[in-house]
Target: DUF3168 domain-containing protein
Amino acid sequence: MSAVAVQAAIVAALTEALGADVSGVFDGVPADAVFPFVSIEEGGSADWSFKGARGREQRFVAVLRDDGASAARLHGLMARAEFAIEGVGGDLGVCRVASVAFLRARVVRPARGAWAGVIEFRVRWVEG
Model:
């Protein structure tokens, strides 16, 4: 349940930071979302336990999608999202976030389709 609490904290932070500038922050890609929107995807996890505490190192990917003519609005949203994600931390009830680290970001656009701003980050947390 700790992974769920971490993801919920990320969703809450992004929702607060981006507010009405996005149609929503979703767990996974919704079928009927209106641009721009954010989806959160889990990028895997590994054991981060140590003597006396059970923990995880978990990767998350925030994908911001926008159908604008340029990526300008997307870059602004990404900067605000990155700042919000880095602020997630502390006691979440079922676990304590030890650290949040930015790993990489990129902006891509297929020949046909919307812009996608991808932010990958690592969260380390311990239970309790």
In short: The longest strand covers residues 95-108.
